[in-house]
């Protein structure tokens, strides 16, 4: 099969790779569409020790089952890339994203979906609703990540999401999705900040609320936001999140740009701010996401750009330079 392989920092090669062989409980899926994630970019830059080269990256995928247990062949599916053990305390309580033995495709030892085919356990497949485009279906993974964070915010907030002032930091797929999920929950006051003017234009087209440049402003007032979603996860955004959140408010930290500094622990303590880490999703989140996408609750999902997998290296370069307005680039193997 053909695959886009990460071979060294800032090097991707489109080449032949051995066809994957499914185990007894796995399906072989012909990949139809796969999105480029921020974590793929992190690995591409050589900043992710969990993704050493050579490795096939990519975990936001949809496709068609070509081999697997009876009744699966021909299914159009979205792939939940998080593979858990199914037997630990976390898995048995429904929190599979916290499984201590969890694996995710595109991270050793599992190859990713920037390829013509991939293997995945049958239990990780969700049917694509009739009429849903495969490229849009591949958005289920980043949207599920955002939905999980919003669910955590709703649980921790002292008032319903329909009554809060919400701030989203980052206008990529997860940040934009978080704003769309907040809106679908009735949130009427949403601000979204992103430094990339092209992404700001894309976010503005979704009519989710006020979109601003964190560098030139105007920025949210200090102590003004009930809920803050940090979809970047860098020092600057953590600093901004803690500054903007009101006393008793909630900060949900989804992004993984870095792990250094930016937390005003004195404010978090004196003003009883809830700071919550949010990692991926549960299968319930994933299914709820696909249903919300299909219902139209999250809008037209027209903020993607599609390119051939063979041109994936150029797509990574454009994302690195910030020269695309799309919140998500989706690669098509065929």
Would you write up a description of this structure?
Helices cover 28% and strands 27% of the residues. Helix 4 packs across helix 5 and helix 4 packs across helix 9. The longest helix is centred in the middle third of the chain and has 17 residues. With 334 residues, the protein is of the alpha/beta class. The strands form four sheets. Strands 3, 5, 6, 9, 10, 17 and 18 form a seven-stranded mixed β-sheet that branches. The protein has a six-stranded parallel β-sheet with strand order 13-12-11-14-15-16, sandwiched between helices. A three-stranded antiparallel β-sheet has the order 2-1-4, with no helix packed on it. It folds into two domains: 170 residues, Medium-chain alcohol dehydrogenases, catalytic domain (Quinone Oxidoreductase, Chain A, domain 1, Alpha-Beta Complex); 135 residues, NAD(P)-binding Rossmann-like Domain (Rossmann fold), CATH 3.40.50.720. The protein is built from ten helices and 18 strands.
* Low-confidence blocks of residues: none
Give the fraction of residues assigned to helices.
25-40%
Kindly name the structural category.
alpha/beta
Q: Rg to the nearest angstrom?
A: 19 Å
In the CATH scheme, the class of the largest domain would be: Alpha Beta
Main sheet overview:
7 strands, mixed
Gross CATH architecture of the largest domain: Alpha-Beta Complex
CATH superfamily of the largest domain: Medium-chain alcohol dehydrogenases, catalytic domain
Strand content range: 25-35%
Q: Report the order of strands and helices.
A: EEEHEEEEHEEEHHEHEHEEHEHEHEHE
Residue-averaged pLDDT: 96
Number of domains: 2
Total strand segments: 18
Intertermini distance: 11 Å
Shape: globular
Q: Please, how many helices?
A: 10
Could you please say which CATH topology of the largest domain applies here?
Answer: Quinone Oxidoreductase, Chain A, domain 1
